[in-house]
TrEMBL record:
<keyword id="KW-0808">Transferase</keyword>
<feature type="transmembrane region" description="Helical">
    <location>
        <begin position="312"/>
        <end position="336"/>
    </location>
</feature>
<feature type="transmembrane region" description="Helical">
    <location>
        <begin position="434"/>
        <end position="452"/>
    </location>
</feature>
<dbReference type="InterPro" id="IPR024194">
    <property type="entry name" value="Ac/AlaTfrase_AlgI/DltB"/>
</dbReference>
<dbReference type="GO" id="GO:0016746">
    <property type="term" value="F:acyltransferase activity"/>
</dbReference>
<dbReference type="InterPro" id="IPR004299">
    <property type="entry name" value="MBOAT_fam"/>
</dbReference>
<dbReference type="GO" id="GO:0005886">
    <property type="term" value="C:plasma membrane"/>
</dbReference>
<dbReference type="GO" id="GO:0042121">
    <property type="term" value="P:alginic acid biosynthetic process"/>
</dbReference>
<keyword id="KW-1003">Cell membrane</keyword>
<keyword id="KW-0012">Acyltransferase</keyword>
<feature type="transmembrane region" description="Helical">
    <location>
        <begin position="121"/>
        <end position="139"/>
    </location>
</feature>
<keyword id="KW-0812">Transmembrane</keyword>
<keyword id="KW-1133">Transmembrane helix</keyword>
<feature type="transmembrane region" description="Helical">
    <location>
        <begin position="6"/>
        <end position="23"/>
    </location>
</feature>
<dbReference type="InterPro" id="IPR028362">
    <property type="entry name" value="AlgI"/>
</dbReference>
<keyword id="KW-0472">Membrane</keyword>
<protein>
    <submittedName>
        <fullName>MBOAT family protein</fullName>
    </submittedName>
</protein>
Length: 462
């Protein structure tokens, strides 16, 4: 079930909302949690009922491991580390089997001329996100940062449907106390108004902006066999802005939906294309993933505590893992490697003491981001090289009315990303009055008019 679908907006969301607050008013608190957990599992299995046993097994395994780790606080450290290692290994093996098995088999066949059959497994929806969420829970339990909750509370923490499919990646301690607050169990009109406002902003980003740019990127990456200079830049920039408005649109919609239930999800985007350095970019883009990579990979590897060389190694390793997490392909690994190396280069540059003008830092960062997204989007090396060759083919400049129209669309997307207030800034300025009501209605109706095809979110496949 998509957030940008009639069945979600006009059926599932209203029913889950109304029943949740009726149960909170008429029954003990556990019934509201139980309903929301059940609704979230229905939301998940609506895509494929075959995936339901998998997520339930993952939840059961991690709940048992989390309790075991929490109850071993007074046990020898070796036992606690063993339990944590077993828990993380179980999650990694599950993710690896479904997401990376065919990648490894393909490469083994290529290296050794073998003929191992591919498993051709369907990737369970959201497996990368609910796996990372639960790994974070196990580590927090080991560190004594995750309070023990009932199985119903834990199921709700993992499956809460606004974040289940594509994040944000959550921490147990920042989520579960919110469900237990007495104030959260009643409808708060201000939260309803703000939540629907943010949802509509995200919906507009997705169906009006991202989905309009999608065919341009698809034509260049997947259909065209050759791209001239203008076509290649249009292709790369179309995807750069499609990805931003698609994923930030999803995150806005998730934040908006959760706010109706009086739950505040963490911010995932903060105008990332305004970044003036690669470090600045990763403090603004997919912020909960950046937090996860830092807290659960970079710091455990040693962070910056073991000398310069080890710091640089840890940075590159962290981003390689982040790249591979996004997808089972060498193009994703290359994307992660380039971002890791860029982090190292920035640190080395800072040691020179030479400060670039902000506009120059922004330009270098934006061009680098646009360049690396080519590898992120391409389904093969050939497709990536096709686009990159076109981007430097200055002698092949062709202009047409179609290309001119595409340029105008990209310029409009650029202007919105660079100069308009982002959704969280708009939320801070929001006031429930007639002017905002008219604005919300306009966004909503205009977006609904674009519901002419099923359009999944890009991060559903990662």
């Amino acid at each position: 079930m998509l957030f940008n679908s009639y069945e979600f907006i006009f059926v599932f969301w209203p029913i889950s909302f109304i029943v949740y607050f009726l149960l909170n008013r008429l029954c003990p608190p556990v019934f509201g949690k139980l309903w929301l957990a059940a609704a979230s599992l229905f939301f998940y299995s609506y895509w494929s009922i075959k995936s339901l046993p998998l997520i339930l097994a993952s939840i059961a395994f991690n709940y048992v491991m989390g309790r075991s780790i929490s109850h071993s606080a007074d046990k020898p450290i070796r036992l606690r580390k063993l339990l944590l290692t077993l828990g993380i290994t179980g999650n990694v093996l599950l993710l690896g089997y479904y997401k990376y098995a065919d990648f490894f088999i393909t490469n083994i066949n290529s290296l050794f001329a073998s003929h191992i059959n591919l498993l051709e497994l369907a990737l369970p929806l959201g497996i990368s996100f609910f796996t990372f969420t639960q790994i974070a829970y196990l580590v927090d339990a080991y560190r004594g940062k995750a309070k023990e909750y009932s199985i119903v509370s834990y199921v709700l923490f993992v499956t809460f449907y606004p974040h289940l499919i594509a994040g944000p990646i959550l921490h147990h301690k920042e989520m579960m106390p919110q469900f237990d607050r007495p104030r959260s169990k009643v409808i708060i009109p201000g939260n309803v108004a703000r939540g629907f406002f943010v949802f509509c902003v995200g919906l507009f980003k997705k169906v009006v902006i991202a989905d309009t740019l999608a065919p341009i990127a698809t034509q260049g990456f997947d259909v065209s066999t050759h791209l001239g200079f203008v076509e290649a830049w249009i292709t790369s920039l179309a995807y750069t802005f499609q990805l931003y408005f698609d994923f930030s649109g999803y995150s806005d919609m998730a934040i908006g939906i959760a706010l109706l239930f009086n739950i505040k999800l963490p911010i995932n985007f903060n105008s990332p294309y305004k970044a003036v350095s690669i470090k600045d970019f990763w403090s603004r883009w997919h912020m909960t993933l950046s937090r996860f990579l830092k807290d659960y990979i970079y710091i455990p590897l040693g962070g910056n505590r073991k000398g310069k060389f080890r710091t640089y190694f840890n940075l590159v390793a962290t981003f390689l893992i982040g790249g591979f997490w996004h997808g089972a392909g060498w193009t994703f690994i290359m994307w992660g490697l380039m971002h890791g190396v860029a982090q190292v280069i920035q640190r080395l540059w800072q040691k020179t003491g030479v400060a670039l003008p902000r506009w120059c830092g922004w330009l270098i960062t934006f061009l680098f981001i646009n360049f690396t997204w080519v590898f992120f989007r391409a389904t093969s090396w050939d497709d990536a090289l096709k686009v990159l060759r076109g981007m430097i083919s200055i002698g092949e400049i062709h202009v047409s009315l179609t290309l001119a129209g595409q340029v105008l669309l990209i310029l409009a997307a650029f202007a919105l990303a660079m100069f308009a207030r982002n959704s969280m800034e708009l939320k801070l300025k929001f006031k429930p009055n007639l002017r905002y009501a008219a604005f919300i209605a306009g966004l909503f109706v205009f977006s609904i008019l674009y519901f002419n095809q099923v359009s999944e979110f890009l991060y559903f496949t990662f």
